[in-house]
């Protein structure tokens, strides 16, 4: 939390520089072809820019940025999702007791909960296919979405000159936790599809026949 606290203490002094960096990112993205990915990246930059204007009060929340960026990309990878995030949305402060993104574990847990919760919807669009293959394809799809969103979040944090020290290590830890969560989910899912081995039927012993009784 040291890096975050330093960021908050120095926010008034560096906000102008950060806003300039973010404006450059936003302008660069705006000049690119208006694809869904570019539009989402532009929204991310605008949200961070708006947050910086009140950074003394609210503080920065790189984990919250990572969550929003990665989840939007995951939904986009599944299909049928369009962001409705208000560009003026303010991330909760890192010191907020109700902030769900205060730790890598918290952020990873929320990302995993939302993204893995899309499985039933994904499986419904692949009815009749092999269950194990569908599960593997699902993880491949949402993993790709997460990695894309992660990269976009990192690009913005780097443009703001805050992707270093504790922020960088905690963002990377979140990456590791999410990737492990996907691996564990798939492993458990594939195991659940395994049919138990059937034991050969045991026939009762033949007790018919003559029994001799000795005198």
TrEMBL record:
Residue intervals of the DUF5610 domain: 63-184
UniProt region (Disordered), positions on chain: 1-38, 191-215
Signal peptide annotation: none
Coiled-coil spans in chain: none
One Pfam family recorded for the sequence: DUF5610
Name of the protein in its database record: DUF5610 domain-containing protein
Organism: Oxalobacter vibrioformis
């Amino acid at each position: 939390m040291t890096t975050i606290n330093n960021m908050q203490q120095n926010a008034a002094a560096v906000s102008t520089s950060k806003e300039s960096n973010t404006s450059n990112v936003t302008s660069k993205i705006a000049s690119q072809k208006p694809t869904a990915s570019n539009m989402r990246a532009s929204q991310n930059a605008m949200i961070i820019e708006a947050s910086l204007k009140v950074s003394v009060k609210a503080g920065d929340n790189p984990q919250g940025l990572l969550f929003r960026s990665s989840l939007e990309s995951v939904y986009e990878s599944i299909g049928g999702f369009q962001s409705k995030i208000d560009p003026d949305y303010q991330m909760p402060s890192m010191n907020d007791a109700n902030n769900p993104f205060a730790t890598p574990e918290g952020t990873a847990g929320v990302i995993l909960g939302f993204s893995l919760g899309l499985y039933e919807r994904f499986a419904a669009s692949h009815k009749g296919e092999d269950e194990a293959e569908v599960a593997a394809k699902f993880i491949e799809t949402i993993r790709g979405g997460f990695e894309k969103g992660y990269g976009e979040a990192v690009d913005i944090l780097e443009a703001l000159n805050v992707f270093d020290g504790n922020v960088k290590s905690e963002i990377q830890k979140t990456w590791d936790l999410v990737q492990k969560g996907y691996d564990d989910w798939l492993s458990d899912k594939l195991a659940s599809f395994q049919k138990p081995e059937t034991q050969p039927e045991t026939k009762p012993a033949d007790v018919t026949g003559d029994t001799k009784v000795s005198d």
